[in-house]
């Protein structure tokens, strides 16, 4: 075919696929042409040459057949969809080419990265995502397949965030929902792929699911949600259509209810830095801190546990029993860990067997990993672990079937197989009679060759004879130059070298043909045998996945135990609901790098242990809403996060960083913390803050844990306090969720007097000789002051400013109410006062005894007490003092009356009055 023809064929194949890049097999190479060649040249540093023909010239880049995988992987990881066209013989000496697969992020099998690679499909009905969203998550590299229906858009986003898919298929309705798509883009790194809408149609989708998992699947797994079925069907059809041949690895459909898991919205998952820090890093996350797994499936499972904590007390009890025994039985634990060390990623190996891409070394890795199971069983049986549910985990897979597969692989494959599966040399002797015979014949032919040099020397009295083989000459007899003219007549010269000559004989050529024939037949036979073997292994994919899953579970449990034992963590007591009591709790991540000061928590339920202090006057059972105050940087956020993480860890089935913990299982954790990164995304922080608050007020229940780190800070003081106040009342009276609320509005601490179950706690600081020490201890009662000025000093704010701020603060302390400037800011301002006893605002024209109607900004009146109001606002950081006035105050303060004459003093006072705009009489 001419190059014009090849390029033409390339371009025509390209136009038939929706892939971004096409690569086409041309003999021993995969080639990229035209724009695609330039693109891969740039992306992958591939050399681009020019293919010229018929006066036209085309960019061309290529990679050898066996080297395509890393290039494919790199392109897909950069977000491209790559189509691969293979070359086939057409039976009459010619060939044709056809696209055999399209590789996308979610269908890339050749991944080396240990993380799960989910492809998610998202389907909403006509009414939109608010009425329910069907979700299917498939990891073709491991065969995991989860299906559920989320109640609304928020719930769907939470699930999508948990699974962190690499590719998303938005189904009908969802794909035209701009807001839903915007959030998808914002909350995941997944690439969005549009796939034909019909594949998500109820009938076709149902058919796809039944075809994949069996007719009775939907009934047997109780999958009733049509949206979920549509999502599942859509993803199956998509995977089938990309032609990666990976459908077989999906052996089991797992349904789940979102309510089986702890509700964790995307914001909370991010705020708690479970798998990714606010800055997008792995280091510093909860998973990073606690992960001691020795296998990648174990690491994957641990991550899954952390992002999907449970609510089922029985299951958590089982995990905790395992962790407890493993934590105390150090010797057995190490033996288990040693055994696990020999395990490969069996789920991935199963998927590769199922897709037909596994090589001999993959099957050997599967064999060796299957051998880990009995080793584990042995380590467990000989110890106290035998009485723990860990023994059940290991007993779950069909151990006999596993032994069968292992023995079959053991008997079949040679220990050191070649890389390619078409060359021969894969199998052990004794595996197949026909193969053995071929090998025998091959070996005897080779023996004949091996002895040839000696025989020729003897027969013809020659010295310096060797027999060898190379690609161009085939087998040859090489004779030293000095004796080359003495070779017998039937020697035919084929090459002259510097010091020798090469010959062949008819006999040698005949043997060569035999050997080549035998090698080819052997290669073909071994390839067939290998495919059969691989198919038999593929047929046991489900078994391999079971074993892989069991090993991963043991690994994850051992990891939890290792961390518990090494860090003095303790087993939490879980109750179906009710109080949360933590003695000497620590932050699981911060404690790793800091000398951590432990703290207690008492919330809700009946009091079984005395709380140390009752400054708030509340009995334990009455407090389930804690207002946390304390200086900036004292540890409020850390304390609240530590509580959230301890509850979460308990519901992962882990020990927790505390000396004792009693956890009433919660149905969800909701957080709202100041999120700096939102600003960067161009969304007003206050809007985001309110959206988050709104979500919490809508979604949290009596059994939820709510963490609020400042609410209302993004707006003016009055707005802020009002919102915080009202939200507190609502959470307390209506939602009744267990809540920790850190606030800098000291006014809120008086809520403890109004609302039954609200109590104050504060993070203590100690002041001595003007220095503040953060004690990091959480004590009952509100804090009495803000230490912001001290932090300013620590931050290096110049001394005059710090000193001045101290003065202003002292002045403000004398005021009992907070004030702010209302009105239009042009002078005719209104003073409004927050009345602590009524929890309402009152407007006043400076006389704090006269309460005006409670609407803000109403009424008028001259601006009086302006300096107080400005100074008051200064503490809240929203308004700064008029610079002129500040200047005058400074001058006033620095005027030393003893150093000035009375006249001079009078003049100064007059000048100040003028500058203040007053009458200078
Ligand atoms: P806040 O929310 O009050 O501004 P943070 O919770 O951000 O304060 O804590 C400020 C600093 O104090 C952080 O660096 C944190 O690591 C440290 N810290 C907080 N609590 C403790 C503690 N209990 N023990 C030791 N260090 C702590």
TrEMBL record:
Residues 843-902 are annotated as: Disordered. PANTHER family: DNA MISMATCH REPAIR PROTEIN MSH1, MITOCHONDRIAL, DNA MISMATCH REPAIR PROTEIN MUTS FAMILY MEMBER. One of its GO terms (biological process) is mismatch repair. Residues 883-894 have a biased composition (Acidic residues). This is DNA mismatch repair protein MutS. The gene is mutS. ATP binds at residues 630-637. Keywords: ATP-binding, Coiled coil, DNA damage, DNA repair, DNA-binding, Nucleotide-binding. The keyword Membrane does not apply. SMART domains: MUTSac, MUTSd. Residues 494-528 form a coiled coil. This protein is involved in the repair of mismatches in DNA. It is possible that it carries out the mismatch recognition step. This protein has a weak ATPase activity. The keyword Cell cycle does not apply. Belongs to the DNA mismatch repair MutS family. It comes from the Archaea. NCBIfam families: mutS1, PRK05399.1. GO terms for molecular function: ATP binding; ATP-dependent DNA damage sensor activity; damaged DNA binding; mismatched DNA binding. Residues 864-874 have a biased composition (Low complexity).
